[in-house]
Amino acid sequence: MLKPQKKNASQGGDEITQLAGGVKAKKKDFFCGVKHISKLRRELQGAGLALRDTSGRTQCETLLRVLQYLGPRGINTPEGVGCGFYRIATRVQELEERGWLIASYRERIVGADGLAHRGIARYTLLGRAADRAPAPQGVLDLGAPQ
């Protein structure tokens, strides 16, 4: 009797992600179709977080408020594009330059086209850089070399 061949992530098997403390979990496909994006856009409009115009400054200011509103849910690239944000990674970079900490992690989604897309970025606001405690290794002062 033949054993079924085990597939790794690159061969279509389950994807594994590294979590805090070395715990491993399977990644699930996230369905990010037209209905989902339309629902998110209506939710943001209802909360007064719709884009007023497409200037980079307005997008940056609105994205910050959207990330604060969504909390741990965050927003991924196709959701952001569906809500009018273009070059969302650039806007995230601009927010980080202003002192905001934003986590970015990759997920696999099934898009409006029905195809699986790997490595789509999801952004979650962590807070202000000044509000976070410094890294323990960063505060060690071993003295200047003599």
UniProtKB/TrEMBL annotation:
Domain Winged helix-turn-helix residue range list: 59-125
Source species, domain of life: Bacteria
Any single Pfam family the record assigns to this protein: HTH_39
Protein name (Swiss-Prot/TrEMBL): Winged helix-turn-helix domain-containing protein
Organism: Massilia rubra
